[in-house]
Amino acid sequence: MDLSMAAYERCELCPRRCGARRSNGAVGACGASSTLRVARAALHFWEEPPISGESGSGTIFFSGCPLRCVFCQNHEISHEGFGLAVDTSRLAQMMLELEGQGALNVNLVTPMHFAPHVVEAVQLAREKGLTLPIVCNTSGYERPELVQALSDVVDVWLTDYKYHSSDLAHELSAARDYPAVAHESLAVMVEALRARGGRLLDPDGEDGLPGRMRQGIVVRHLVLPGHADDSCAVLDDVWSLCHNEVDLSVMNQYTPNEACRAQGGELARSVTEEEYELVLDHADELGFERLWWQQGGTVSESFVPAFDATGVASADEPGSLR
Question: CA nearest 35: which of 137, 116, 123, 110?
Answer without folding.
Answer: 116
